[in-house]
Amino acid sequence: MKVLFSHSYYYPLDEKQWVKKQPYPPLGTIQAASTVREKGYEVDLFDTNLISDPDLIIPKFDSFQPDVLVLYDDGFNYLTKMCLTNMRNAAFRMITLAKEQGIRVLVSSSDSTDQFEMYLNEGADAVMLGEADETLSEILKHWENNQDLSLVVGVAFRKEEKTISTGKRGVLRDLDQLPMPAWDLVDIEPYRKFWLEGNGHFSLNLATTRGCPYKCNWCAKPIYGNRYNSRSPEHVVNEIDYLISNFGPDHFWMCDDIFGLKPGWVQEFDKLLKNRKLKIKYTIQSRVDLLLKENTIDALASSGAYEIWVGAESGSQKVLDAMDKGTDVNQIYEATRNLKSKGIRIAFFLQFGYPEETKEDIQKTIDMVTELMPDNIGVSVSYPLPGTPFYDRVKSEMGNKTNWEDSDDLDLMFANSFPKDYYRKLQRYIHRRLRLKQGIKMKTLKTVALLPYYFIATKLDRIALNNMEAQK
Questions:
Q1: pLDDT > 80? residue 445
Q2: What residues make up the domain containing 75?
Q3: pLDDT of 465 higher than 80
């Protein structure tokens, strides 16, 4: 049986991400391909990241002639968790094209796990629910032997026009049993070119963990759930060594939801890198409370941490508590100052528009950003995803639109304190406000040249925001 792997994230269909020129290979997809290849199947990859037309898969069908198309989204790419309609429509088109050629279709993604009926309606033969490494291999085996999929845990399919769901499979605990992702299936050079043109360096992605044990009530976890499982530091360092030897990246993006949660993991990772004489620069996601434990920041700095993104979310403790975030504003301040003292860049994820957020709450977030001056920020508005307490809270207020088209949509899809355009303007304002203050502090030729633009733009943004606040 020949198995063609693909996925449904197309960077060109998400303009905000495309202009950054920071594409990463589909890590989850090539991990699944490696697992299946280890079982003896012939595999290939149709990588959609750098193209915009799903119909380009047709020549791959003709050349590889697969028996099965597996649309296996990269669950390590947080953008796939947003279930963007541009990507959903691309997946539907690929399903249609495959079925026209008599190819069976399997789907695994956050969106299809939540909306499996929709994907089955489009012609998918089966949808894998949750973590799918073991489910995928079992389905292929059952199809080879013409066996009923009802015996496989973690799948939804149609039988005699009825939908059957066998529920989610438990997640893997021993991640070291997984083979190295099938990096050989990826054409790395276009990625290198994009990175060098847009950023002056080349970054690759790898994952050290799966899942997150925390319970922020707006965060969806359809694939890995609330469990947290970690690869051993040795397993990760082996992959780093392989990637450096074969592709020569300048930087790594550790695409875990939370990096280094397991006690002592970062310290052992640092030790192993030094023993292997591997010097790396990397970026992670973490939580401010975790960063303040033991000597974590020291170990991160020693091992090559370059930038750390934290879910700051808000400068208002009231909002953090409403989100069930489990952190406090003081920890954001302390972690930021500690990271800066070690020369590590700090970046904030911020979220506006949470129910009952007031003008005063918003101002607290703006004040926090301008006082702490993170090196970067990612600003969004509260986005309801199925399966979360937040979604259940606001779903009665949502209209026909339940998903963003792309990551720059920023449509607040439920009733809130201010109109939708207010939050779009707020996102632009806080970015410009930060860049203005950074420019004043840095005083380089480039930043000084941009100061008049940022000064005027923030003034106009503030006037517009004030007018919308007054009309409320």
A1: no
A2: 2-165
A3: yes
Report the C-alpha gap between 48 and 71 in whole angstroms: 11
Q: What is the tally of structural domains in the chain? A: 2
How many Cα atoms within 13 Å fall on the side-chain side of residue 324? Answer: 10
The full 3-state SS of 105-153, as one line of letters, equals EEEECHHHHHCHHHHHHCCCCEEECCCCHHHHHHHHHHHHCCCCHHHCC
Give the whole-angstrom CA distance, residue 176 versus residue 185.
Answer: 21
Cβ-defined contacts of 294-299 (< 8 Å, 24+): 294/263, 294/267, 295/267, 296/260, 296/266, 297/335, 297/338, 297/339, 297/342, 297/344, 298/342, 299/266, 299/267, 299/269, 299/270
> d(Cα 392, Cα 381) in Å, to the nearest integer?
17
User: What's the CA gap between 142 and 243, in Å, rounded?
Assistant: 35
Measure the CA–CA gap between 418 and 246, rounded to whole angstroms: 51
| Distance in angstroms (rounded) separating the CA atoms of residues 145 and 157 | 17
Write the burial class of residue 114 (CB in 10 Å: 0-12 exposed, 13-18 middle, 19+ buried): middle
This prediction has a pTM of 0.95
**Which tens digits make up the pLDDT trace of 273-301?**
999 999 999 999 999 999 999 899 999 99
Whether the CB-CB separation of 67 and 2 falls below 8 Å is answered with yes
Classify residue 185 by its DSSP letter.
G
Looking at the structure, do residues 185 and 302 belong to the same domain, yes or no? Answer: yes
**What pLDDT sits at residue 417?**
85
Is position 317 within any domain?
yes
- Looking at every residue in the chain, the average pLDDT score rounds to 96
